[in-house]
Amino acid sequence: MVGQAAARRAAGIILEVIKEGKIAGRAILIAGQPGTGKTAIAMGMAQALGSDTPFTSIAGSEIFSLEMGKTEALTQAFRKSIGVRIKEETEIIEGEVVEIQIDRPASGTGAKVGKLTLKTTEMETIYDLGQKMIESLTKEKVQAGDVVTIDKATGKITKLGRSFTRARDYDAMAAQTKFVQCPEGELQKRKEVVHTVSLHEIDVINSRTQGFLALFSGDTGEIKTEVREQINQKVAEWREEGKAAIVPGVLFIDEVHMLDIECFSFLNRALETDMAPILIIATNRGITRIRGTNYQSPHGIPIDLLDRLLIISTSPYEEKEIKQILQIRCEEEDVEMTEDALMVLTRIGMETSLRYAIQLITTASLVCHKRKGTETSVEDIKRVYSLFLDESRSTQFLKEYQQEFMFHEIGK
Amino acid sequence: MASAWLETLKSAEKTCLVQDGRRKVHYTFRDDSEMVEEYDTRNNELVVRKWKKKGTFGGPAERWEYEVGEQMVPTSVETESLVVSSSNPIFVRKDTKKSFQWRIRNLPYPLETYDVSVNSDDRSITIRTSNKKYYKKFTIPDLNRLNLPLEQKQIKVAHANNTLIVTYEKPAEMMEMERQVQDELKKMKAEKDGDVQCNQS
């Protein structure tokens, strides 16, 4: 990331807070002009939190849907951001591969069949392999002498390492090859694994009408409040028994000015509950009308909610920063650009917008390819600058030629 | 603690049905788990006992777990993932009136190969083979439910027709408890197959 030192420092402090689990239930507002990296900061926070903390990202307009109410969509988003860490028993197969045999049909097409012999120190079992299993075994490059675990429910294969008994002095092998003991006892074991699931996932599993399969279909519709209450109670029970721990995550709502007054009052209430996640909202509006009312308010957010927020503001990028961002972007898109062209592009970025300048990188490089050049030059930039209008030139153009467009009389 | 388990059985919601020469009893317990027992109508021997318990996160369990008897599933030849090959040993519990019995088919090795022992610390029985081909650790849930001890001297092992038969003689308390369960079940009115009322609203 480039620039925004103050905003990033603030985000860093909030990360610290989230990690320590201190103030679940507070909210943060990231405010700033368009194209100043608000979303980028939120995404960065998500990455810094790691995969174990639930992070849900939605856009403000996503909650308006015909299929479910606004508050239902918000509740679901909230519950997606609260994780429950719980122990669950799963059945796994753990053993050393004795032999793996895959038969391809003589015709070359059709299903493959195979056999896998696994052993522990005490026993040996032969398994028949299906198509999918053969594919994942070949993908993992499993061979005789490897110690593997196979999750029975999902079919996921994990290589633990090579068996000690197969170790030879002069075997050529990679430096990271690990040697492990051959497993003991039974091949099929029940193992306790720790999962983090979100409250929403538990909701979906328990909402009778859809059952278990709804998790995969994605479309869940509304969930009854009774179901939610039951689950809250169950989770509280687990927590007291020490079976589960609650992991408050982060809910990020982009373009929050799209929410209306009802949603804001719902948020107010929701933040007060004891299991609320950290709420990060972002907006690029100044003082504007709150949707659903005729009142003006800073950021289009009611004052009572604003009062609960910690506000981080982002400022427009400096020239040097814009240059750096464009440079990074060029590398990302594999575009080589002359120093002069980059200077011109930076000026364009300063005068119009950063996003427009970024768009020009790819288009200019295509123009460069067309004339069989290797390095994108000032000429190419000039060409695409004349081909594609930026927002202010487009407005200018419309003002000049308004009367020649359709329906212009209606607007007057 | 024989009475505790008996009380649980008594308090459970029960339905009884006679079908295909079997008396099938369905129990629903207080914690929403379900159990089905099937008795042979001729000699009242337990043929099947299976359980369906709730998943960790609530929601229905996907399948029945067999405690006694064998699950008859049509194994399709074209499976996606992996299945235990049919040439492997198959472990089934099959009780008689006086004893618990386990039959492990597809075990061709002679009787001297096997070592069946009781571990009293985790209340389980272990079958080992000296040629390291088969190993199985299992418990007797019936005895656990009544909190009765496991004893090595009750175990008998036999081998015939590629099958290893492990027999554990039921203790007297167990027999007594089963008699009481039978008495309880006799009081129930069994529905005959086919005359189930189906009210259409």
From TrEMBL, chain A:
Residues 24-316 form the AAA+ ATPase domain. One of its GO terms (molecular function) is hydrolase activity. Its main location: nucleus. SMART domains: AAA. It is an enzyme of class 3 (hydrolase). InterPro entries: AAA+_ATPase (IPR003593), P-loop_NTPase (IPR027417), RuvB-like (IPR027238), RuvB-like_C (IPR041048), RuvBL1/2_DNA/RNA_bd_dom (IPR042487), TIP49_P-loop (IPR010339). The keyword 4Fe-4S does not apply. The keyword Hydrolase applies. It is found in: Nucleus. One of its GO terms (cellular component) is nucleus. Pfam families: TIP49, TIP49_C. Coiled coil: none annotated. GO terms for biological process: DNA repair. Gene3D superfamilies: 1.10.8.60, P-loop containing nucleotide triphosphate hydrolases (3.40.50.300), RuvB-like helicase, domain II (2.40.50.360). Keywords: ATP-binding, DNA damage, DNA repair, Helicase, Hydrolase, Nucleotide-binding, Nucleus, Transcription, Transcription regulation. Its EC number is 3.6.4.12. It catalyses: ATP + H2O = ADP + phosphate + H(+). Belongs to the RuvB family. This is RuvB-like helicase.
UniProtKB/TrEMBL annotation, chain B:
Belongs to the DPCD family. It comes from the Eukaryota. Pfam families: DPCD. This is Protein DPCD.
